[in-house]
């Protein structure tokens, strides 16, 4: 039987942070930001996921997620965005983890279960469906190989990179500025953020969950830039094919 | 240098390059002793080894080899073997054939064989001196003294077999070594491991001595034997044989031979043979250099160069009678005139004397502290510091003492030929200082000048009560550092001048103060000189020398005894005077203090400038003031004081040195550098011998003037960072130290390193407990408890003689310290002697030293905290009366004011000299002890149990009764059951009542506590007033008359326990006096808890409610139900999709209703809007929109992308064409989608994708 104990605030934060970390690995695999050889298949939330085995990459991701978790606790986060960008540092796709802190929890109550909230196993099942949807994303968006996969020179992929961006609620600043260490967050490029998105960008809602504590949704946004470059390369490929045909 | 290195080295290099003259001399010289050949043979014996190995190993070509040989042959005058011939024979021999590749085993076996051939050669050449070692097969391990070569020769020459490798242990009969690694110790544990001097001594004696006398002992210090000594010391005088026979260190005599050695050191075998070994080489080397010392007088120290007083000579003598380190010993002239104190050795032979005078003696510690000058000095210093601090506290808090103290009069007698005005000014200030708040030291002590030499009862009064705290003064002090006036006041040869007050006839004569009086101790007295008069100093006598050394310098020296009582008195007077003038005072020692007189001098200055309009005479007011102080002290004590004046401590000290004798000197800030330049480093306070040596070695100068030219970096590099920095500043007359008048006491310690001679662990343990008792007494006297304990142990240096040169001194020692946390039950700090003793003994035991080797033990208690006050409360709270007996006793031990006689029962001391005939002989001393009991019974722990048992029964019972009466502690240690049994059998009833008494003491408290109101108010002021005084014991001494007056029946009163007596009397007196107070016997006043303002029942703690999850209500799609008026709300995706499907299906033939579309759009927008819905709403909206899209595509797919331009017929005959319906639907859809996008864009930007 599933455990029916409702989540506590901290559990929710930890759970979401953990999920984001898993999801980032999966995104990197699914969108082929790094070669598939880098990843190893594992099981998480009862579903196969892919995890990077590159220590530096893992360290970066876990560091970023830890910083995200720090912000999550304060309830300031609005979105966590994994930006897939091309070699010109222009966003192609944004994986938007939109979070919404539904309640304010006093620090002494952070470990007590939130009444009415969903339980940990249920959240896990939700995450599972998130991940399944993520892994099926390719069918929806096509390979991030810019248009026709067959015609795409593989080198383009090598220039894809990613970044983790957080968007805070209005008027909030990252909390962890204690002067000692360099702050984990630097101002993001506007184009990477949702505010910098053109109207042509398309948002695919993957999945959302209402935990009752922090609601989470994952959406993928394809930027206008992606469409335009895809179109370009498509036409280029077509013309090339035509040339070849001639 | 040369002789010893050659002696100790096994390198033949030293010999190859020697010039023919030397070798010639070597031949001619006539050497005494059997071993004279050794030195000659050494080069020779080494040659073949080298030769052979070289030629074989390296495969040198024969030509060069020959060349080499011949050239060497030229040098080698003594070579008796024709090398060429020898070589050819070697090569023919199987042993000397070329080694095959990879044949390491062969190589080794050949090497062994070769070595044996060499041995045979040595034997031949040495003409086999004797055969005493026949049958011995000896292996030498590690570095030895004498060297392996020497020993090998010795072995072979006397018929033994020397093994270079320990291949088969069964083959080897003995192993020679001076030091072994622990692993080897284990390896050789079943073998005969012997020190090399066995062979040396045997060869000397001409017979094979029993090897058992020379068994190698592991605990001999390793480092010393590994060549350090040889490298470091070139002089024979300090060449103490490290391999003393063990029987020497054992006092119990059972070997005839070594005993002789003990009483007649010069004929000591080991030493003698050692000398002869050394002499061989050193006498030879004297041809080469004169650096070596003469073998004729190996014990006299090489005089540390004649230029003693030139500041830059390294070998300056240190004057001390009992140096700790050999380095130090080297610097003490005349120190080693005896290797071992002959008197002490003789005395130690006598067990009775030993029992009475060493640390084994029961009253040893007492006596030690009664006679130890250093002890007095240090305690006084501590006490003076306390007095100063107290005075300061009083001054700060503004409460002066009452006016009943003797005023020091006649201040006006200051007459020093000072100009009238200045004189007036100075006098005025002095008078001001003395008068008014007044100086004073009150001797509240009623008892006459008994042998109590403590200063504790005295009080010093600080002059300026107006000053609120030093810190404040310092912070807001307008006077900068250069304007500060610090005086260093120091008695001139304090002990001597104090003694001379009573002995005016000795003035002007060389006088010293020391323990030894008259001719006592004779020429060899090691009594240390504490102080020497200036006349004596002219002879070069200094404090710290032994009397014997002083007599050598000045035969007519006169000695004076210590007069501690007088010192104390003078010191107090001295301090009183200084205190009256000082703004701030730091007690340095009994006869030395630092004072800050800035304000007084300033006042004098203003006084002068007021009365005289800036007189032309630039007279130094500070100096005038100093003279006035000097005059005052002189009048009070009759002794001269010298005062150094400067603007900081360091310079003041330098100045006082200049001021001596009997003067004052002011170093002005401008003159500081000049004044310092001619001085030497160690003239500065805080820089000692070690720093000086370092400076000498690394900087090549010790003169401050020279050092002043060096940069700070150079100084820091040479002397270490902080020292270098301090020195750099000091040279420039800068010293930032502040006077430390209120430094709190950090530790209390007891250190005894005189007369420590134990025979067994029991004695050591007993001594440690006694020492602990002393420490705890000291702690108690300053009302402190400690949390940490350090034990310092001095152990005889293995190279030092058993009896130190100083009579009963410690001699050369290794010092060890260990620290432990001092924990009383309950984790509190303690000063309980038993606990201190236990901890100390545990530490000492942990060292695992042979008690015979101990030469000094010290116990120090640190991390002090105040014992008074809370401790009592804690006690009552922490310890329940029915706790184990031990804790009850410990409580009594801590809490009670009178010192428990027998709180701890340390193991008794058993002096059982090996020669003691029987117990019968002992009673006399025991009787002496018992007869003493009438005056003063020794502590029970100090009674010799065997003696005690031997007493007649009646006396014993009496004694026991007496001890029991005195003892406050009820029960002996449970750890010593034997004793308990004894007591129980003798007086079984006795143990119990005492326990009851202790319990009762606490019981009262407990009862009253229960009587007292509960809750917070139990700490009411009344209560503390009531019960606080309970523990102060006082005799209820009320006359019968008074009792009657008070209305008490004397008979009944007498029957009452003392506590209740006191209560009754107090209560009755209270009643009588009519005062309102606490009554004891009267009507009981009901004590009620003070009513609180707050409601009695505090609101119960309610845990804050757990957080509640927040699920915003999802937007719903309202639909009319089947029944009339019924409304259905759809929120789930499927339901909404169903509704849409129905809607779409219903309007396949008609364009959708505008209202329906609007209604539906509102729902979707609400879902998308994240302010009104969550993201799952968005998800749902998208899902719904997608389904709508699917439906539309299914039914009107053609029209999805239909261009607006070629619009066909939309309506026909009131009927909508499919194109018209389709276009209408798509229009509606795009409209709704547009609305959704607009809303979604607010959060995500872009638009929604329905793909």
UniProtKB/TrEMBL annotation, chain A:
DNA-binding found in the keyword field: yes
Descriptive protein name: DNA-binding protein
A Pfam family this chain is assigned to: HORMA
Family: Belongs to the MAD2 family.
Matches recorded under PROSITE patterns: HORMA (PS50815)
Residue ranges of domain HORMA in the record: 10-220
UniProt keyword DNA-binding, yes or no: yes
Cellular component GO terms, alphabetical: zeta DNA polymerase complex
Record's keyword terms, sorted: DNA-binding
A GO MF term: DNA binding
UniProtKB/TrEMBL annotation, chain B:
Domain of life the protein comes from: Eukaryota
Biased composition, class Low complexity, residue ranges: 272-293
Record domain BRCT: where: 128-216
Comp. bias regions, Gly residues: 435-449
Positions with biased composition (Basic and acidic residues): 37-50, 468-481
CDD domains to which the protein is assigned, alphabetical: BRCT_Rev1, PolY_Rev1, Rev1_UBM2
Localization in the cell: Nucleus
One GO location term (cellular component): nucleus
GO MF entry, a single one: DNA-directed DNA polymerase activity
Occurrences of domain UmuC (ranges): 486-688
Protein name: DNA repair protein REV1
Provenance organism: Cristinia sonorae
